[in-house]
């Protein structure tokens, strides 16, 4: 337990951490991987190169410092991170390694400002926070393993089919090698896929949203092929270009907190930007099956029809559901798009468009996509007076902060 004095010490350091947080976490990861290169088999190196993981960890540390006397207030974030940790295979034995290097990084960056009292307070605080994560993750591991069809860590699957959805997105149908039935999952959840790529020194793990409703015999993920020079493209390009039907991959059980609330009967708005449509597809499947009378607005914003995935699937899915309205928004439609009117709006999602076409006064909103897309949507929702308890979103990758102006 932390003393009241230690809590006050931790809270007092929050402004300093906010100023130097990214420098601390950058130093932390540098030392961590130098001392424990085996952890490079777990961490996403693309996120490291882009600084996303450093910023996400810095934000977590700052939030912990600011709420150290009321840690229950950050439990939603803890739950979200714990789901990611469970799907990656983070274990209790990793936490002392992290703590040791994090404390050294704090001391290195803050220098003389990191007094003995401050460092002792942070050492004790880290243990309290680590224990919370370990406890939450232990429960998730147990629940995952004990559910019907569940398993712990990773399990061998094979690629049963590859289906091209657009010029840049391909769906992969993954079936368990042992032929056992798969666990059910909540729309919006994801799985981790672990690959040993011949050209890469370390194992690569990536998390992909499940893009279909639950099936007993397969998972479906739909992967965007990134530019070959993009650090995010190592795994996606390998999946697209170098895997074949029958190839094996390692897969975690489904995880994630970004899930559809089917207890709500409010109108539902599902908004996907580009490949961010993948969790929206799973949610669309769920709502038309479980709440066929619930009004739904399904919005997909994408560059043009060539890169738009799931056009036919969405059309067929809503064919007999009069309560579902589909809105396709193309920012740069092709000549074929214009000739055949394969879309409903040209340009980007605007405040006026949302005002005219979406039931913003009482709807629940779920959205996912590139950060600029999500910031645009969030700003418009705030301008429209939509309360935060009706707004749900998820980043692909480490949690970031949406910069809003409203």
Automatic annotation (TrEMBL):
Residues 149-406 are annotated as: Reductase. FAD binds at residues 190, 206-209, 395-398. The record marks 29 as: Involved in heme-bound ligand stabilization and O-O bond activation. Heme b binds at residue 85. It is an enzyme of class 1 (oxidoreductase). The record marks 84, 394 as: Influences the redox potential of the prosthetic heme and FAD groups. It catalyses: 2 nitric oxide + NADH + 2 O2 = 2 nitrate + NAD(+) + H(+); 2 nitric oxide + NADPH + 2 O2 = 2 nitrate + NADP(+) + H(+). GO terms for molecular function: nitric oxide dioxygenase NAD(P)H activity. Keywords: Detoxification, Dioxygenase, FAD, Flavoprotein, Heme, Iron, Metal-binding, NAD, NADP, Oxidoreductase, Oxygen transport, Transport. Residues 1-138 form the Globin domain. Its cofactor is heme b; FAD. Binds 1 heme b (iron(II)-protoporphyrin IX) group per subunit. Binds 1 FAD per subunit. Its EC number is 1.14.12.17. The keyword Transferase does not apply. The active site is at residues 95, 137. NADP(+) binds at residues 274-279. Consists of two distinct domains; an N-terminal heme-containing oxygen-binding domain and a C-terminal reductase domain with binding sites for FAD and NAD(P)H. Is involved in NO detoxification in an aerobic process, termed nitric oxide dioxygenase (NOD) reaction that utilizes O(2) and NAD(P)H to convert NO to nitrate, which protects the bacterium from various noxious nitrogen compounds. Therefore, plays a central role in the inducible response to nitrosative stress. This is Flavohemoprotein. It comes from Alkalibacillus flavidus.
């Amino acid at each position: 337990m932390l003393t009241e004095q230690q809590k006050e010490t931790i809270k007092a350091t929050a402004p300093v951490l906010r100023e130097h947080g990214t420098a601390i976490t950058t130093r932390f990861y540098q030392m961590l991987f130098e001392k424990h290169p085996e952890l490079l088999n777990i961490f996403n190196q693309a996120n490291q190169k882009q600084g996303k993981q450093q910023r996400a960890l810095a934000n977590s540390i700052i939030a912990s410092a600011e709420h150290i006397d009321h840690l229950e207030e950050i439990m939603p974030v803890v739950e979200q991170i714990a789901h990611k940790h469970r799907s990656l295979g983070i274990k209790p034995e990793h936490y002392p390694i992290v703590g040791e290097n994090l404390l050294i990084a704090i001391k290195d960056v803050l220098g003389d400002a990191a007094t003995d009292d401050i460092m002792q307070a942070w050492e004790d605080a880290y243990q309290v926070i680590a224990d919370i994560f370990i406890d939450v993750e232990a429960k998730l591991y147990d629940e995952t393993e004990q559910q019907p069809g569940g398993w712990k860590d990773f399990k061998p699957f094979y690629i049963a089919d590859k289906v091209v959805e657009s010029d840049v997105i391909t769906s992969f149908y993954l079936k368990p090698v042992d032929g056992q039935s798969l666990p059910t999952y909540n729309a919006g959840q994801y799985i981790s896929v672990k690959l040993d790529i011949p050209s890469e020194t370390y194992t690569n793990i990536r998390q992909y949203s499940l893009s279909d409703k639950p099936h007993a015999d397969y998972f479906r993920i739909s992967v965007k092929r990134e530019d070959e020079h993009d650090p995010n493209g190592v795994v996606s390009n390998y999946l697209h270009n170098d895997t074949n039907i029958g190839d094996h991959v390692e897969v975690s059980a489904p995880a994630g907190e970004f899930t559809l609330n089917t207890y709500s009967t409010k109108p539902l708005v599902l908004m996907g930007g580009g490949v961010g449509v993948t969790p929206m597809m799973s949610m669309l499947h769920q709502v038309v099956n479980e709440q066929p009378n619930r009004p739904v607005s399904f919005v997909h914003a994408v560059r043009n029809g060539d890169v738009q995935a799931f056009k036919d699937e969405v059309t067929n899915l809503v064919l007999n559901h009069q309560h579902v309205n589909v809105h396709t928004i193309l920012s740069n439609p092709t000549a074929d798009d214009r000739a055949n009117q394969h879309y409903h709006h040209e340009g980007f999602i605007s405040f006026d468009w949302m005002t005219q076409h979406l039931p913003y006064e009482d709807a629940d909103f779920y959205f996912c996509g590139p950060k600029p897309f999500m910031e645009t949507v969030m700003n418009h929702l705030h301008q429209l007076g939509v309360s935060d308890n009706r707004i749900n979103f998820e980043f692909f990758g480490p949690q970031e902060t949406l910069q809003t102006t409203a």
